[in-house]
Amino acid sequence: MAMMQHSSSTRFEANAGIAIGPILFIIAILAILAAAIAAGSGSFTSGTSSESNRTKASALIQIGENLKVGMDRMLMENGIAYGGYTINASNTIANNDLFSPTGGGITSPSDALSNTPGTDHWLYPTGAVPGIGTNNAEQLAILKVAAGVCDELNNKANGLTSTPGGVDVGDFATTGNDIDISKMNAWPLTGKTIGCVNNTNGTTNGYYFYQVLYAQ
């Protein structure tokens, strides 16, 4: 009589393989956390950049006001007429030097807040800003800055949500002559003694903070 053969294959427990479920769940949670952290990191970077722009804008406004105080002091206390002064970091002795203790009584500002420190320096051109004084030229202090800083400057100083569109308002690096009046007529911030413009001029293009130091 033939004997019945029993299968030698191993029978798995009913709960075998169930552990993979929790593992996949944990992996999914980790993926969600990683995505959230990445998004949060980007938001933090953006927030830090915006705060930096606001801080730089506030500092530049203070520097502009300080330059204006120095100019006023030199003109009113020393009786220096328009154009009779010197604005140069190397001139610090005479009573008609803006950066002299006996002149404007202030120190030359650093270019640390410029778009490219060490490359972009303070400029002091003259030009007739529309809506300020007569049609004669004003004395300006100008520094190239980043676009984000420019927007914050106009927001803080003039209540604008953004910087006006780019326009050629002349060569800010010009010396010895006023900026071309035909260029100055296109100045986008009429009547504003402080602010920031987007200059598309071929020589000095970019975003520039400006402060009117002397209006005629």
Describe this structure as you would to a colleague.
This protein is of the alpha+beta class and 216 residues long. It is 35% helix and 12% strand. The protein contains three helices and four strands. Strands 1-2-4-3 form a four-stranded antiparallel beta sheet. Helix 1 (20-78) packs across helix 2. The longest helix has 59 residues, at 20-78. The radius of gyration is 32 Å and the shape is elongated.
Quick description:
This protein has about 220 residues and is an alpha+beta fold. Helices cover about 35% and strands about 10% of the residues.
* Major sheet: 4 strands, antiparallel
Number of strands: 4
Main structural class = alpha+beta
Detail the poorly predicted runs. none
Q: Secondary-structure map with pairings?
A:
Blueprint: H1 20-78, E1 126-127, E2 138-145, H2 147-158, H3 181-184, E3 194-199, E4 206-214
Antiparallel strand pairs: 1-2, 2-4, 3-4
Keywords for this structure?
216 residues; 3 helices; elongated
